[in-house]
Amino acid sequence: MRLEPAELVLIRHAPAQTEGRLAGRRDVPAMLLDAKALARGRAALADVRQVVTSPALRCRQTAKALFPKRDVLQDARLWEQDFGLEEGMAFGDLPDLGPLSRDELAARRPPNGESFADMAARTMPALDALAQRAEAHGPLAVVAHAGTVRAALALALGTVPAALGFEIAPLSVTRLRCLPGTFSIISVNQEL
Predict the structure, then answer these.
(1) What is the pLDDT of residue 125?
(2) Residue range 147-183, pLDDT digits in tens
(3) Rounded Cα distance, 63 and 58, in Å
(4) Contact 22, 83 (CB under 8 A)
(5) 180 contact partners, CB below 8 Å, separation of at least 6
(6) What's the whole-model pTM score?
(7) How far apart are CA 110 and CA 3, in angstroms?
(8) % residues pLDDT > 90 (the chain)
(9) pLDDT tens-digit map of 90-149
(10) Would you list the domain boundaries of the chain?
(11) Distance (Å, rounded) from C-alpha 162 to C-alpha 106?
(12) Helix, strand, coil: what percent of the chain each, to 5?
């Protein structure tokens, strides 16, 4: 993968040790990859000039494994969606959201939590600022969460609900070209 000069490289953290429960804001560790997989990831991301991560342990661990010799900055705005009282619930016990439209799903706020639309509104200014840094200094990697990647896709698409149509695999790469005032999607869910 050859990175473009003005590019956001969004990396979802490595698989998390969730024990079958919704993690969201719970600070669970990552299950890191073997040496061969990490070497492939490092080679694919060699053009990255800057690295910013969510403060979540699973993101920091992933960033350190992929960029061991880089300074990694943290930005709290990149945290995953706050699922409120649903945090830590077993996946099988979560409410069935299948009947909801994407608009309804984006607006749904779990008790004491935030909606995806709320999370996107919190995350988008950070992504805009990071895009400006990428435009000025070259490819920038963001190691964060599926929700953060979807928020970036929402920026490129110009609509928050449509971004919920994307599944974001652990340790996948989504690439956005940063253009003045806008983004274009280069690729989604590339395997490292």
Answers:
(1) 96
(2) 999 999 999 999 999 999 999 999 999 999 998 888 9
(3) 9
(4) yes
(5) 135
(6) 0.94
(7) 38
(8) 86
(9) 999 999 998 899 999 999 999 999 999 999 999 999 999 999 999 899 999 999 999 999
(10) 7-191
(11) 9
(12) 40, 20, 40
8 A C-beta contact, residue 176 and residue 150: no
Residue whose structure tokens are 């429960």: 21
Other beta carbons within 10 Å of 49:
16
pLDDT at 2 over 80: no
Identity at 124, one-letter amino acid code: M
Closest CA to 147 of 171, 170, 177, 119: 119
Phi, psi of 137, rounded to the nearest 5 degrees: -125, 0
Instruction: List beta partners, residue 8.
Output: 140, 176
Residue type, 133: R
Tokens of 118: 């709320």
Give me the helices (H) in the chain, please: 35-44, 57-66, 102-107, 116-137, 146-157, 160-163
Give which of 44, 39, 38 is closest to 14, Cα–Cα: 38
* Conformational region of residue 120, where left means phi above 0, alpha means psi within -120 to 50, and beta covers everything else: alpha
Helix axes 35-44, 57-66, angle to 10 degrees: 80
Q: Domain spanning 7-191 has what CATH number?
A: 3.40.50.1240
